[in-house]
Amino acid sequence: MELLDFLTPEDLYPELMAMSIERAQNWGLMMSHISEAQKFTKGAGILVATLDTGTAVHPCLDAAIFGERVNFSDSTSVMDMQGHGTHVAGIIAAREFQDNGVIGVAPEARIMSVKVLNDKAKGNYGWIEQGLQYAIANGADIINMSLGSPSPPPDSLYQQIRAAAEKGIIVVCAAGNDAAAVNYPARYEEVVAVAAVDQNGDIANFSSRDGNVDVTAPGVSIYSTSLNNGYAVLNGTSQAAPFISGVCALLLSHSRSTAGVDPIKNYLDMLVALDKVCDPKGRAGFAGRDGNIGFGIPDFANVNWQGQTPPPQG
Q1: Pairing between strand 222-225 and 231-234?
Q2: For this structure, is 62 an active site residue?
């Protein structure tokens, strides 16, 4: 089966950085006021499958990894040898380590590491289908796919996504980085399609966009975990998608653990929940979804938590 490029240059060339607290601060967490949500939930009990290049050993991630890493690519190693998957996993669920300033959106969620792209970041739809089957069979609550292609997949891949949706699994995908139409598999109806914005809240110049976008998230100059216990900055909708997977983990955990909160049973419920937490200014004045940015950017600053007070922090 032909190997395809599911990642683009925006994803592949990190600016490796010396660790410093000042530079490590993630502007996206502040833009979306994630700390406000984390007063109520940090994603406990939620399992997020990352279908990517795998994950590396890293002090910020080791406690987050669930079970054994698995590999469906033609790589000989189950570990991430490229860096992309490790960066994605850190955005979702990194545990803060030695005050380095790196913390995931949902730092109590768990990561199921599913390698479907090889060490050159190439893959095929067959590997992705196997990854989907594994995630569905092994209890994933959310599936993150920071990958995409303008080439339509075989119908068998769409059927796997539908199978996940029917089980109530939330599938989150990167919109793409070609500044054109939303890529596959993000353009499927059952998928939460994520475009990228920059520090000004503007859609990133590289981000794919059209009416298939459901939500936008930070995707420019995103600092997260990388290879060799290190850290890196990457740009891409590949970074925006795990941000939203983390947000979904927060919402899903809160829904399951708190009496009186509307249950989130499927992707349609999740879209309603995302609509409630997204900044209405991100809709460009429209009632509902804007054609390019969906519901806009998550912002927990003014979320109505139904009058609840935060649980004790201990």
Answers
A1: antiparallel
A2: no
In single-letter form, the type of residue at position 307 comes to G
Q: Name the active-site residue from 149, 238, 245, 253.
A: 238
Locate the domains of the chain by residue range: 4-302
Q: Is 52 a catalytic residue?
A: yes
Q: Give dist(CA 60, CA 228) in Å, integer.
A: 12
Mean of per-residue pLDDT scores for the chain: 87
- Radius of gyration (Cα) for the chain, nearest Å? 17
pTM of the model: 0.92
Of 11, 32, 52, 149, the active-site residue reads: 52
Q: Any residues with CB less than 8 A from the CB of 105 and at least 6 apart, and which?
A: 29, 34, 43, 91, 92, 93, 242, 243, 245, 246, 247, 249, 250
Write the pLDDT tens digit of every residue in 163-216: 999 999 999 999 999 999 999 999 999 999 999 998 888 888 899 999 899 999
Q: What share of the chain is helix, strand, coil (3-state, %, to 5)?
A: 30, 20, 55
H or E stretch at 267: helix 267-277
Of 75, 80, 84, 141, catalytic: 84
SS3 150: coil
Q: Is 84 a catalytic residue?
A: yes
Taking the C-alpha atoms of residue 105 and residue 243, their distance in angstroms, rounded to an integer, is 7
CATH 3.40.50.300 fits 4-302, yes or no: no
- The burial of 281, by beta-carbon neighbours within 10 Å (0-12 exposed, 13-18 middle, 19 or more buried), is given as exposed
